[in-house]
From TrEMBL:
Protein name (record): Peptidase M24 domain-containing protein
Native organism taxonomy: Bacteria, Candidatus Nomuraibacteriota
Domain of life: Bacteria
Peptidase M24 domain span: 20-228
SUPFAM superfamilies in the record: Creatinase/aminopeptidase
Length: 246
């Protein structure tokens, strides 16, 4: 009989643990909507990141035991900086025609949320629209694979990766996603060579992306609960192309 390892037990969330993750996600969604209202041409990445942290401080004023409010330092990237997967906000100013990337999350009772949305500051050219739609399609294909009952991490990763590589070779440069819990990256992981089997009851991110160094990148990330035969998307923020054009 197989002995369950701690990380396998930890991955399966109780009702209360799941409630904390969902609450953290709903707060993140409120912060995102607030931040989008504050964006204007000329604002810096650092200033936009402060909108994010101030928003979390507003909705999560203080947590017991000094629990950190942020799940991780927010990623805010404009223009060519969106091609940097782990970009740290800097002095770059928002310009018309820029792509904008937000990747952030918060904690509720130690449990994390995680979400990425990519936006266009003005009507994007056809090529950028095409790439955005390709990333969205890759995410949808992975979700549909999970909904069929597939639980082999590398198979799910490959569905998205194969689709993107058929159009844009070697531009998807990270795993498709990871578990989320009391830390922002926990077991299991969607990676090309992962031997992980995704258990029912765990929360995973699905975050395909394409990155073109020196130009720009696009990533879309949702959190999903893995159910017995399908999955439930815990992210409630529009991601269709029209919604991505600001």
């Amino acid at each position: 009989m197989k002995i369950k390892l701690i990380h396998e037990v930890r991955a399966v969330k109780s009702k209360q643990e799941l409630a904390n993750i969902i609450k953290a996600q709903r707060i993140s969604e409120r912060v995102l909507q607030d931040v989008l209202q504050k964006l204007k041409t000329g604002v810096t990445e650092i200033a936009a990141a402060k909108f994010v942290t101030d928003g979390f401080a507003k909705y999560l004023p203080a947590q017991a035991g000094g629990t950190p409010i942020l799940a991780f330092p927010p990623i805010v990237a404009f223009g060519k900086n969106t091609a940097n997967i782990h970009h740290e906000p800097g002095s770059s100013k928002l310009k018309k025609g820029n792509i904008i990337m937000f990747d952030f999350g918060c904690t509720v009772n130690h449990y994390c949320s995680d979400m990425t949305r990519t936006y266009f500051w003005g009507e994007p050219p056809a090529k950028q629209k095409k790439i955005y739609l390709a990333v969205l399609e890759a995410q949808n294909r992975a979700l549909k694979k999970i909904q069929t009952g597939e639980r082999r991490a590398k198979v799910i990763d490959n569905v998205a990766r194969k689709f993107l590589s058929s159009k844009f070779k070697n531009n998807f440069k990270h795993g498709l996603g990871h578990g989320v819990g009391t830390v922002i990256h926990e077991w299991p992981n969607f990676k090309p060579k992962s031997e992980d089997i995704i258990p029912t009851g765990c929360v995973m991110t699905i975050e395909p992306g394409l990155y073109f160094k020196g130009f720009w990148g696009i990533r879309i990330e949702d959190m999903v609960l893995i159910t017995k035969k399908s999955c439930k998307n815990l992210t409630n923020v529009a991601k269709d192309l029209n919604s991505a054009i600001l």
